[in-house]
Amino acid sequence: DVQLQRVEEGLVQAGESLKLSCVASRSLLPVAAMAWFRQAPGKQRELVARWLSGGSTITAGPVKGRFTISGDDAKSAVYLQMNSLKSGDTAVYYCNINTHSREYWGQGTQVTVSS
To answer: What pLDDT is recorded for position 66?
Structure first.
């Protein structure tokens, strides 16, 4: 089956930056949309940002202005640049890739922000 692999995870301090990457183990073209979700302990999974085929993006309110999603559908890859991290950003981050027929999820990346 297709694996979505993460690159980069870790423990950072408040105010620092971190970039998450998610690359499919094989081409998933054509890609309809790619996204990042996160789930903090005791909370529901929530959308962080979405990239749509064509390049438009949607960013959730709590991270707007700090996080930037980008995508490379030719590589079936999605990235999340996270700046000015806060302790409230601590969560497991999941990438998600939607083709026109199927949805794929990454296994999750723990991001911990210490204050």
So the answer is: 98
